[in-house]
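In response to the reviewer comment on reproducibility (Comment 2.3), we provide here a single inverse folding case reported in full, input and output, so that an independent group could reproduce the run without further information from us. The structure tokens appear first.
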């Protein structure tokens, strides 16, 4: 295994933190990025520093707000200054909301799209020039089984944003392959424990619309949905398997990294849906003579 320089977005908790720590334990130099290290995330940064001290792993925190291009640019510049390169970028930062779709304002939809989708564009624009110059690199995108699998109601804004991010990841893969830059899309299913997704989920701003749903045929529906889907997640579902999958992707040799990896304890069918849609897209590229875009170029440039 070659030691990689890795930047993980949204690494203060959940998949991001687990991934950052797992990659560092695997021997990589990992920059765990998060907002407000001196304030709201001070305890998380301190815990990572303590872990580094106790274990000798190379886990470093870096201030990065994915909703601010200056913050992103500064963080990437810091990483390059310290380590000279970025080999792997893990797009993990995101936020979830829960409630009736109608009760979220357009501004809330836009904000959620910013966090889950536009954030990846900000970070890509800062990191990719370095990867293109090096003619190597790996983008890891943390998607969602909701894009093609069975989905519960009351998560429409979040699911829409994750679907957009997944679509963009696919096109980036094609547009970067001739530079020798690889792509792996990680597809977690529903994990109702081990992350803060539901605990930190946003809620509708339009209380009157939300109340109308609660006063009508959807009374108690939010609890009903969460209970129903929690019951189909196996009790031994381990959220750390997402981080383990990303470690395995990094350990694979160039050209052998999987385009998609599914980690779905509830088996919502996303693996079947993606198998079909990814094949259709690949067949179109074959049809128009662009099949080379499906694999990263060796010795690109």
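Designed residues, in position order:
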């Amino acid at each position: 295994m070659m030691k990689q320089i890795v930047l993980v977005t949204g690494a203060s908790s959940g998949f991001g933190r687990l991934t950052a720590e797992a990659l560092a334990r695997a021997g990589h130099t990992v920059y765990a990025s998060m907002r407000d290290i001196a304030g709201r995330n001070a305890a998380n940064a301190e815990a990572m520093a303590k872990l580094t001290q106790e274990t000798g792993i190379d886990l470093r925190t870096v201030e990065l707000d994915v909703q601010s291009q200056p913050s992103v640019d500064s963080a990437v510049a810091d990483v390059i200054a310290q380590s000279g390169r970025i080999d792997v970028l893990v797009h993990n930062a995101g936020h979830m909301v829960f409630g009736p779709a109608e009760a979220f304002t357009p501004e809330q939809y836009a904000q959620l799209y910013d966090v889950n989708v536009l954030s990846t564009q900000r970070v890509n624009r800062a990191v990719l020039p370095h990867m293109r110059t090096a003619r190597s690199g790996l983008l890891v995108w943390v998607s969602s089984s909701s894009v093609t699998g069975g989905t519960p109601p009351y998560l429409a804004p979040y699911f829409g944003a994750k679907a957009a991010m997944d679509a963009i990841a696919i096109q980036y893969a094609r547009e970067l392959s001739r530079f020798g830059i690889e792509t792996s899309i990680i597809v977690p299913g529903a994990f109702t424990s081990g992350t803060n997704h539901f605990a930190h989920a946003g809620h509708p701003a339009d209380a009157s619309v939300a109340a109308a749903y609660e006063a009508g045929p959807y009374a108690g529906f939010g609890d009903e949905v969460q209970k129903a889907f929690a019951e189909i997640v196996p009790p031994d579902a381990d959220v750390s398997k997402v981080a383990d999958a990303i470690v395995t992707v990094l350990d694979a040799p160039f050209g052998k990294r999987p385009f998609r990896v599914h980690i779905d304890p509830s088996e919502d069918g996303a693996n079947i849906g993606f198998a079909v849609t990814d094949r259709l897209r690949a067949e179109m590229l074959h049809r128009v003579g662009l099949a080379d875009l499906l694999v990263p170029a060796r010795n690109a440039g």
